Amino acid sequence: MKPSLWTWNTRTVVTVGIGGVLYAATSWIGIPIVADTQLRPAIALLAIFGALFGPVVGFIAGFIGHVINDLITSGTVWWGWALGSGITAAFMGLVYIFKDFNAREGRMNKSHLVLFAVCGIVGIFVSLAFSGLFDIFVMGEPNDKIVVEVVTAGLANVAVFLILGLPAVWAYAKRNRSNTNLSVDR
User: Fold this and answer.
1) What is the pTM assigned to this prediction?
2) DSSP H or E stretch at residue 154
């Protein structure tokens, strides 16, 4: 049985911490696409933490990880983009709330996979729209620069999510499904 979204214990706090640190550490790895935009495999971690632990844990881990990465790499936090990372993970974690979904117990079928893909893609573009609008209206960034960043980051994030994140969660669930019929002989 999977824990409730609102059950907070030591394990939940540790999971958020590990997720945040892993996302921050892997956010350094990227292939530059356009100015201030990279293809980052770390997006796959948002999918994994969101799907396995839910939208709340995913949001907090994504947000904290982005803040840590910003502080280490540039010394300043881009709050709109940090919130965007959290929003992305929260959308990817929406699959967690479905009663018959539980990747840790191997319960993930093709309809869950489709739902996960749709929620992830929608979440990527919702979070990037939020981040872009935040930069335009709060930070005073030029519209044309932000549009290019949002579109290229969106396409790159969708590619990483579909190529790395979604298959990782599917494989994890499949591995756990094959182990559920084991018994211990004494």
Assistant:
1) 0.90
2) helix 143-160
Phi, psi of 31, deg, nearest 5: -110, 115
Give the CATH architecture of domain 10-178: Orthogonal Bundle (1.10)
Burial of 25 per CB tally in 10 Å (0-12, 13-18, 19+)? middle
Q: What is the pLDDT of residues 1-47, one digit of tens each?
A: 777 887 889 999 999 999 999 999 999 998 999 887 889 999 999 99
Cβ burial of 114 (10 Å; 0-12, 13-18, 19+) is exposed
**Domain residue limits, the chain:** 10-178
| Contacts of 174 by beta carbon, 8 Å cutoff, 6+ apart | 106, 108
